[in-house]
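User: I'm putting together a small comparison set for a docking exercise, and I want a reference complex before I start. The sequence is below, and the ligand is zinc ion. Could you produce the 3D structure with the ligand included, as structure tokens?
Assistant: Of course. I'll restate your input first, then give the structure tokens for the complex.
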Amino acid sequence: MTCLFCRIVAGEIPAKQVYADDVALAFLDINPWHRGHTLVIPRRHVTDVVSDQAALAEIAPAIQATAELLIGRLGADGINLLSNNGAAAGQEVFHLHVHLIPRFAATGGFAAMAAPDSDIDLDEVYQQISRS
Ligand code: 5GP
Ligand code: ZN
């Protein structure tokens, strides 16, 4: 088995697991961006969200339960949810995972991590996506 996260599911590689149910696991990211940065994954191998219609809904209860832990036990004031789909998006492990990144009021919100691009023409983008 070569998939890193399948090996974590199988118990072959240790992980700091904080939540588990029949279909999903949650464990601390080994290189956290913020305190409590956690990954939620399906137990079954799925490459990413866009390649499997059911997987995100399957792990939704685990995402919610893990978010409650981060808020209730770690005192997070908010949480960024992120899933990188494809290498161009920054995906490095090709087993679906949702990053739960706890945020604390003192450290700034999403705007501190990403800024809007004023060069983007909304009309042009809209027409390209919506044309039939
Ligand atoms: P991606 O860039 O694919 O969205 O995120 C992969 C994440 O997996 C990274 O944030 C990285 O730190 C984390 N990661 C990589 N290898 C391991 C590992 O062996 N154990 C754990 N707990 N996290 C890992
Ligand atoms: Zn896998």
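The chain has three helices and five strands. The first helix runs from residue 4 to 9.
User: Thanks, that's exactly what I needed.
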